[in-house]
Amino acid sequence: MEKEKIARINELARKSKEAPLSPDELAEQKALREEYIAEIRASFGATLEHTVIQRPDGTKEPLKKKK
């Protein structure tokens, strides 16, 4: 995510502590947060796809998705 968008998320968070946000600002904040969370989940998912478990006997097996 671009630094400008993260800065805007933080700016809106600070502003919301001082005074209520306008409906447009609330919508912008929600959209930015959803985009940020989607990127975090994608990054974490990619990390888990490349994670392996090494057993005591030395064998390695990739993580599997739970059903």
Question: If you had to describe this structure to a student in words, what would you say it looks like?
Answer:
- By secondary structure, the chain is mainly alpha-helical.
- It contains 2 helices and 2 strands.
- It has a two-stranded antiparallel sheet with strand order 1-2.
- Helix 1 packs across helix 2.
- The protein starts with a helix and ends in a 5-residue tail after the last strand.
- 0% of the residues are buried.
- The mean pLDDT is 93.
Q: How many structural domains are formed by the residues? A: 1
The CATH superfamily appears as: Helix hairpin bin
N- and C-termini, Cα separation: 31 Å
- Evaluate the radius of gyration: 19 Å
Shape label: rod-shaped
CATH class: Mainly Alpha
What can be said about this structure in brief?
The protein is mainly α and 67 residues long. The protein contains two helices and two strands; from the N terminus they run ααββ. 64% of the residues lie in helices and 9% in strands.
Keywords:
67 residues; mainly alpha; 2 helices
List the helices and strands and how they pair.
Elements: H1 3-18, H2 23-49, E1 52-54, E2 60-62
Helix pairs in contact: 1-2
